[in-house]
Amino acid sequence: xxxxxxxxxxxxxxDKSIIPDYMAVDISIKSMIVAAxxxxxxxxxxxxxxxxxxxxxxxxxxxxNKELLDLGMKTLEQYPFDEMLWRPxxxxxxxxxxYYIVTVIEQVLxxxxxxxxxxLIGKQHKYKNVYQSI
Length: 134
What we know:
The chain is 46% helix and 4% strand. By secondary structure, it is mainly alpha-helical.
């Protein structure tokens, strides 16, 4: 989301309607502490006892990728980043080939162009390794 806000990432390989299982870190940590406490209060396991398995999820309070995008864009309008490469926007796609082509056209080639331009005018490269990770 930060890379999208800075204008570096322009496309993502995801479905807008999917509801990811994101969870706040504090909730996950609290769940681990409660699970450890619960396990410590049980008696020692015997051979026939079942080993307890603890799961933690946040599906009931999750939002879809579209809602997350809308919330992020609304927040960016109110509190924009100080330094942006391009105007923040994102495209969702479930087609890998479209994702790959748009990534090359809208992320890699502009990054190479900006890098070459900065090299020509002798400026320091802020986003030097952006395109090398793809």
